[in-house]
Every structure is written in C-alpha cells, then in structure tokens.
Amino acid sequence: MAGVKQINNKRSQKIGFGDATVHELKTLLTAIIVSAELLAEELQPDHKSMPLRLIQNITRNAHSLDEKLANFSEMAGLLSGEFSFQPELLEIGPVIHDVTSQIYPITHSKKQTLHVDLPTTLPHIRAHRHYLEQILLNLLTNASKFTPEGGNITVSATSNDANLVIEVADNGMGIPINKQDLVFQPYYQINGGKGSGLGLAITKFLVELHGGKVWLESTLGKGSRVSFSLPLSDQR
Asked: In terms of C-beta density within 10 A (0-12 exposed, 13-18 middle, 19 or more buried), how is residue 9 classed?
C-alpha cells in the first residue's frame, strides 16, 4: 500500500508541475499577444509594411501556441483522471447560443456566416455544462479553421426517442474518405494543419463521457458535418 501511495503522490506532483508550467507559459504568451496586437494597431495605417506583416505573423503563431497549450492541459487532465464530471439538467438552446457568441469574433474576422438552426422546443439533457461548451467550441473552431473566408457554418439540433443530436456543418475544404477515420485520434492533423491535433480527440472523449457518440460525414471540396448524440434526460 505504501508503494501505491508513493506512486500516486509522484503522479500528482507531475500533474501539478505540468499544470503550473502550462499556466506560466500561458501567462507569458498573453503578454506577448497583447503587446503584438497593440504594436499591430500602431502600424495599421501602413498596412503593407514588412514590420506589420511580421507582427501579424507573431500574433497568429502566439494564438496557435496558446490553443495548443490549452488542449495539452485539457487532455493531460482527462487522461490522468484528474477531472470532475458533474452533469446537470440542461436546455441545449441557451448553451448553443452562448458558445456561438464566443466564436463569433473568429467567424466574423473571416467574413463567415454562422447559422443557428434550432426547433422551438427540445428535450432536456443531463450534461456537464463546461464540457458541453468545450465540445461545441472545439467543433465550431475546427469548422471555422477549415472553411474559407465568406463560407457558411451551421449549428443544428434534433431529437428522437432516445437522443439529442447536434450537428456542426460547414462548406469548407472537406476531408478525404481515407482520412476520415483518423480525425478523432490524438495528434492527427488534417493536411499538416497548425493545430495541436487534440481538439477532436478531446471532443470524442467528452462526448463518450456523457454516454454519447460522435461521427463525421465529409465530401472533399464541399464541406464536412460533425454530429454527436447525447442521451435524453428522464425528466423531459
């Protein structure tokens, strides 16, 4: 028993050290991002200057690194079992509207149209709100990332006797058939993308944590649809 306790203590120390390291790096990154964005504003009148383009490149890469750190931290916590799952009775509509408000600045910057298509009423589900928001945020961020400027993204929801089904569809680049089974694997990146390769793996883990399923339908050059199901609550 003493040996098991020592192993668990060492594991906790490693996890704690990892969390502290990620926190410190994200704090430094925030300062870099804010400084770069302020400098970009100062250089904005000369929109074709080399310094401005270099600053914009720094900002993009800093945001990308910030996203990777967040995903690494999230995945480390999930794999270690260091997370709290506390489902509550929820209406999906307000959650979807909250998340689409969060993602709006990203889609707006790419001149993308974000549609929300929900029926008047939907049954309640039991879900952990933070994790449900994370699922939707991952799917919407991914859709925006692989949809060109001026493209369309739609979030919709339907229900049947047993499940609530939520879909995020886009008219982006699409995914080849031979790669569609790989997208939910950790660290897999579509076409050598710049992300962490963890967003969809985290999404799959969180959906299955709720007792649901997630799947992809995609046509190369026409777009993708990622759907996930969540069991309905007994209290409908």
From this structure: exposed
Lowest mean pLDDT among 53-67, 119-133, 136-150: 53-67
Q: What is the pTM of this model?
A: 0.70
220 pLDDT higher than 80: yes
pLDDT digits (tens, 9 = 90+) for 66-108: 766 776 666 666 666 666 778 899 999 999 999 998 888 888 8
Please list, in sequence order, all residues whose beta carbon lies within 8 angstroms of the beta carbon of residue 135, skipping any fewer than 6 positions away.
203, 206, 207, 228
Name the region of 81 (left: φ>0; alpha: ψ -120 to 50; beta: rest): left
Q: Are residues 192 and 208 in the same domain?
A: yes
Per the CB < 8 A criterion, the answer to whether 207 and 166 are in contact is: no
Question: For residue 183, what is the domain's CATH number?
Answer: 3.30.565.10
Same domain, 122 and 68: no
95 within 8 A of 133, measured Cβ to Cβ: yes
